[in-house]
User: What shape does this take?
Amino acid sequence: MRKTLAALFPLLFINALWSKPGDTVRVNTHNKVVIKTNPGAGNTKYFGWGNFPKAGVKYQKAYAELTFKCAPGLKCGEWDYLNFIYLCNRRGATNDSLGWEIMRFITPYGFYFDQNWKHTWQFDITDFAHLLHDSVQIMYQHTGYEANHDRGWEISLNFNLVEGTPWRDVKNITRFCTRSVGYGNDSLFDKNVPEDTFTLGQETDLMRFKILQTGHGMDKPENCAEFCPKKRYIMLDGAVADESWVWRDDCGENPVFPQAGTWLYDRAGWCPGAEVREYNLDVAATPGNTHRMDLDMESYKTTSGGANYMLSTYLVEYSKPNYNLDVVVEDIISPNAELRYKRVNPSCGSPKVIIRNRGGSAVQSIDFLYGMDGLQQKHYRWNGTLKLGQWDTLDLPPDFVP
Assistant: This one.
């Protein structure tokens, strides 16, 4: 198979609402909204509506961009607080109210940022893209208890929808749970995260368990759940299908630096001033089969204090692949001027790219054609094995030849 990387530049966004396949539609739901805490309640909610493409339009990719600034005339917020983005009401061809969490974010320690400070984060929400049609209400929830008379944030939230055929069609998505779950003895987590039984649709070829999970609290003896790495087990039909650490070990590499506070310390699935990454487990499926899924945590007992996990879980059902051969450049790490990659840019070394196989067949080789403006393009052939759905990060040979 031949795959060509013609240029190392990010996508050019357009503002047209109706567009042809391959174009990107940009929809804004929150434009320079000032958010503050409510110390008496612990959370504040900010609603916004977006006019999305009409029902029937397909997206090959969807991602959101969240931009933070200090609010005009105020200091930035001081603490690392949980922020949640929910898909609420839909109007148009579909009229319903979901209340599903589709993104999660942790604010930075920003009290000493100046009025020129600004940062944008990106969230891949492709699995929820089929829900974004016609008129959609998005709710931004900001939590925290700090003073609200002298500090706050100005936020903007944009949705970028790349039209076209996806790698697979989402046939159904089911929310299992969204809740705060206690952690500190074996019964707490098990009681609040019971086993789910589900039956797959007749067109389901792949099932994905999607998990948003962050740990909070500082108990004894291990400062759980914020500062203690613990194992999570995904049980399918009574057997362990996956085990992984609820932990993020790259907080010190945060592009939002420097901050005040303990932003350098790794945490249970999150970092101050960073998006919360989903955990996705893909499992081959047989249409119409019934399964049992259970989420368990490593056994742990606290001696004092409290710990909890903020948890949202989903089941995504996919069709068979829409392409037999389809490899994409999922992202360009360097060279890239985007803020999220500023810790590794600017770069004069090897281009670094993320590739993904979205086709039905495994790929053994990929051809890249790339280069700098004004210089001869360079050809590079990658050899290996990239199975369906697999990702890889590649360092392409540098191109300095005149």
Remarks:
- The chain has three domains: 24-163, 170-318, 327-395.
- The first helix runs from residue 186 to 192.
- DSSP finds one helix and 22 strands in the chain.
- The two ends are 29 Å apart (CA to CA).
